[in-house]
Amino acid sequence: MVVGDVTTGTELLIIGAGPGGYVAAIRAGQLGIDTTLVEKDAYGGTCLNHGCIPSKALISATDVAHDAREAEEMGIHADPAVDLAGMVDWKDDVVDQLTGGVEQLCKANDVNLVEGRAEFADENTVRVAHGGEGQGSESIEFEHAVVATGSRPVEVPNFEFDGEHVISSRDALALDSVPDSLVVVGAGYIGMELATVFAKLGTDVTVVEMLEGILPPYEDDVSKVVRDRAEEIGIDFFFGEAASDWEESGDGITVRTENEDGEVSEFGAEKALVAVGRAPVTDTLNLDAVGLETDEDGFLATDDRARTDVESVFAVGDVAGEPMLAHKGMKEGEVAAEVVAGEPSALDYQSVPAAVFTDPEVGTVGMTEDEAEEAGFSPVVGQMPMQASGRALTLGDTGGFTRVVADDDAGFILGAQVVAPEASELIAEFGLAIEMGATLEDVAATIHTHPTLGETVMEAVENAQGKAIHTLNR
Amino acid sequence: MVREFELPDVGEGVAEGEIVGWLVEVGDAVEEDQPVAEVETDKAVVEVPSPVDGTVQAIHADAGELVPVGTVIITFAEDGDETATEDEEPSETRTDTATETRSEVGAVESKDDGASDDGSGSASSGRVFAAPSARRLARELDVDIGAVDGSGPGGRVSDTDVRAAAESDDDGDGASTADEPAPKPAVERVEGGDESDPGPAMATGSASRERTLAAPATRRLAEESGIDIDSVPTDEERDGEAFVTPAAVEAFAESQRAAQDADRAALAGSGGEERIPYRGMRRTIGEQMARSKATAPHVTHHDEVDVTELVETRSELKAEAEERGIGLSYMPFVMKACVAALRAFPSMNAMLDEEAEEIVEKHYYNIGVATATDAGLMVPVVRNADERNLLELASEMNELVGKARERSISREEMQGGTFTVTNVGAIGGEYATPIINVPEVAILALGAIKEKPRVVDGEVVPRHVLTLSLSIDHRVIDGAIAAQFTNRVMKYLENPQLLLLE
């Protein structure tokens, strides 16, 4: 007990108001649980404030300008002037609207909102330090707690974020002018999304990546479509290069990289954007006090009820392990709240979809062909190239394909990889198919609207059955 | 080519047949039209002929088994094929015209080699194909979805499959016998009606007809409103039958709502109400109770017994037991008396296997002791009670009851009972109608031991009297057996020294 502390009690205490935390809070409120949500910064977490939402807003806005510029084939001749500060203002409005919505939803569901930084004091108490001088702190006793503190960008040694020369994805989304040139360290999904945005805004973008390709978790033919398009819009790639250090030079910086053989290369640019991944935020929580330990990467192990090793403590979202995706965190938050309420809830999803908002977009769910084989299935694959899609042609965007992986014996759909315009939307149908245990026949027999990109789902499925109409069957 | 042969409709429209016997064995060569099995329907015994020349590859039904028409009963390898044995991988070369007609009827054992006959990938991958709603239902019903036979395409598991698995799973979860009567439903379930909560008792002004004429849309409206169409008052008639219009349904639904609101308002006016979630242990207990009442026709037999000698015996032994660190209640005496009576009346220590249409009499005596805990009713089971002496029964029971109250008892320790005793009198009361812990067939409730006037040798004297309430499953036990069993238990409780002979 700290002098000056006020102690209150709550049935369910949630630390962090990102997608995992706020969903847990709202669901718990709906279930009549006395819930307290502690947030140190802004409602909505990284996703709403510095991640998914602002990046998608900028990607959309950038695409408007870029597509207009590239539409001569359609008979449109335009050279839109882009005011990045104005674009960022619009993006901020979108973010404000959403974060305000989250706060209102929490209040409407009787969630007590507390602002401050929480850490565990013992197994049923947290201390919340309020920001600012003289704001003091308070202790909150809980019956159950949910850790939903999210993640932060990983820093590369010698590349501490300074917000000016070396910037994080968060800084990049808040720039008020378009940099002339940019070195992007890391060709994962965050690096590739932002590299694409700035390249389309006219920045001279160079991507350096330690590995041998972009979008490492994805299959080669998927990432190749994105890489080819990226090179078309002017992005330069250097693979097998590990960023070692940088120095100021003139108005900008020089980034040095090393390859396997120790050969050093130098890349000059106005700024370096480092996007090599994210790490869970669990070091601020004083987990010892509640009897919890993280693994070596800082993640908290959880079971299929989102419960940690300590019965009364749950962990959801990025702190609970890969994949670090907002929608996975949301589902975990829902389940944690329902378990606290005594519902027979569990994390028993069959797959977690993932989307990359590059050009074209990538959407994947479930197993690849190789993974299906490893799992003991005899996979059959069906594919529909966008070049054969009437709708893709009318969009003037025919790169990529829709692919389905199914079990040849029973026809169950096991996975899909889509690299196409709106792949992030198209993947949802495959997610539902996998979750419902749908077979190729089920999807093939479902009438899909013409002319849409959604037809490529049906066509890929029919291709797997050897009876596609608009493509040649294998 | 493999040919799976389904039981044909051997009579005119019969649904099932009993395999009287097989005329061939696995490995036998058969010719087309050669009889392979004798099947008895409710009409006749007929011979089932082979449809092909070939070899018997597998027989899927035992003699004596009752098989629905359409079930695969035998598999032949047709001549001219390499005979594939059951364990071989399916042929690698697949053509568009499937040479195997795989049946999806009947559960097929999955094999270790990953070639599962039902075509589902689950044998090879461990993956279960089922919708999230079916998975949730499995969790609610405590069913391992991985062990459910799916009836959908490729073995996909549906809600219906999960429910069927739950019903065929005889593992009670220990929450079962009530030491208080189950709440009576406010209205009777409408046959074929919606399974949802029928709501409070019907308001006044409801009808009660056997038959009602109404348009399909009106019936649907009634169903959606949770209303039994036969209860809707109407003055209209068609063809001499009561006719109900949508307006009448709506008016009746409104009056029902108003009545419910009035009930709520009345409650609220008298100090309000609290809504407590019906979840966890409470719901588990409730579901088990409902299952028991819906399954077993209960009859309760009541009697009272003079236990004055038992009271004396127990007080003498209690001190001795305490010296050995064991608390001795009346329950071990009752358990011993019950075991002795169960031995004499084996049908009381039984279960009904409906699927096999057999009554299973058990030659072991696992006695459940219904225990009130903060979380609700739990029934720890004392195993092999017949092999233990009084003190061993007491200490085993004390340990289990303690665990139940601390919620540290395992599921296994609450399973496998063959008969249950519940001590209502520990809290108070005399008689009850205890609910049977299905699949057991009987439960004995004890009232409180009270001093009452009794006539002994023509004199009214104070005696210690215990009341007994024995509920039986009337499908298996008749009232006469219940009375005889109770008399036997009473004999031992009246003369506890007889227990020395047991």
UniProtKB/TrEMBL annotation, chain A:
EC number: 1.8.1.4
A Pfam family annotated for this UniProt entry: Pyr_redox_2
Co-factor(s): FAD
GO BP annotation list: 2-oxoglutarate metabolic process
Residue span(s) of domain Pyridine nucleotide-disulphide oxidoreductase dimerisation: 352-460
InterPro entries documented for this protein: Class-I_Pyr_Nuc-Dis_Oxidored, FAD/NAD-bd_sf, FAD/NAD-binding_dom, FAD/NAD-linked_Rdtase_dimer_sf, Lipoamide_DH, Pyr_nuc-diS_OxRdtase, Pyr_nucl-diS_OxRdtase_dimer, Pyr_OxRdtase_I_AS
UniProt GO MF annotations: dihydrolipoyl dehydrogenase (NADH) activity; flavin adenine dinucleotide binding
Residues covered by the FAD/NAD(P)-binding domain: 11-333
Record keyword Flavoprotein present: yes
Cofactor stoichiometry and binding remark: Binds 1 FAD per subunit.
Catalytic activity: N(6)-[(R)-dihydrolipoyl]-L-lysyl-[protein] + NAD(+) = N(6)-[(R)-lipoyl]-L-lysyl-[protein] + NADH + H(+)
Family membership noted in the UniProt record: Belongs to the class-I pyridine nucleotide-disulfide oxidoreductase family.
NCBIfam families xref list: lipoamide_DH
Protein name: Dihydrolipoyl dehydrogenase
TrEMBL record, chain B:
Domain Lipoyl-binding: 2-77
Top-rank taxon: Archaea
Coiled-coil intervals, chain numbering: none
GO cellular component, one term: cytoplasm
Positions of region (Disordered): 79-130, 145-240
Domain Peripheral subunit-binding (PSBD): 129-166
UniProt keyword annotations, A-Z: Acyltransferase, Lipoyl, Transferase
Keyword Transferase: yes
Gene Ontology MF terms in the entry: acetyltransferase activity; lipoic acid binding
Bias (Low complexity) ranges: 117-126
Cofactor: (R)-lipoate
Composition bias, Basic and acidic residues: 91-114
Bias kind Acidic residues: ranges: 79-90
Cross-referenced PROSITE patterns: BIOTINYL_LIPOYL, LIPOYL, PSBD
Cited SUPFAM superfamilies: CoA-dependent acyltransferases (SSF52777), Peripheral subunit-binding domain of 2-oxo acid dehydrogenase complex (SSF47005), Single hybrid motif (SSF51230)
Family the entry assigns: Belongs to the 2-oxoacid dehydrogenase family.
Protein name: Branched-chain alpha-keto acid dehydrogenase subunit E2
Biological source species: Halococcus hamelinensis 100A6
